[in-house]
Please model this.
Amino acid sequence: ETGVTQSPTHLIKTRGQQVTLRCSSQSGHNTVSWYQQALGQGPQFIFQYYREEENGRGNFPPRFSGLQFPNYSSELNVNALELDDSALYLCASREDRNYEQYFGPGTRLTVT
Amino acid sequence: KNQVEQSPQSLIILEGKNCTLQCNYTVSPFSNLRWYKQDTGRGPVSLTIMTFSENTKSNGRYTATLDADTKQSSLHITASQLSDSASYICVVSPTNNAGNMLTFGGGTRLMVKP
Model:
């Protein structure tokens, strides 16, 4: 396994609600990225955090936000959930100056 | 518009046969190109990473090639096994920042049948 864990595994929410997804990276991995993967498609980059600061963002609205903590854990928060937010959410972490990213198993979010 | 296109979208082969998956990209300049294997409902796992100066990289039965002039890459799987059934995703890193703004292809869904 990659050493990256995510929780919860599955989650069902109602439109308009808020959700927090969690990721625990390997020790020493200062960079964490979050991706959204709709069914049958490739992952789409949401944003990246380095040493607790956001340093890159994809084409996602501000209701997608994140946090990174000193203990190599991170969160993805989504407010005002929409039906189209239903997807597999992946986090990936890596060391400084290393191309290799390690993905977690993902959280399957269903918005009804 | 997605700057990484993969073909075919899906593929069915018999166990023991070889196959080749294609990836065309328009991302430029690019730093490196990666192939990932993703089992259903799981996170992607890295197979190969190639910088723009590399032409080929192998990982067991997986061999990736890269032609930076034509902006094409391929992943060749030899002597396929049932466990090779998965999606294979081509990923391009558009800058020298190793992880930021990775651009993913839509993947090829491979099914290996006995």
Remarks:
- The interface with chain A takes residues 2, 4, 31-32, 34, 36, 41-46, 49, 89, 93, 97-107 of chain B (CB under 8 Å).
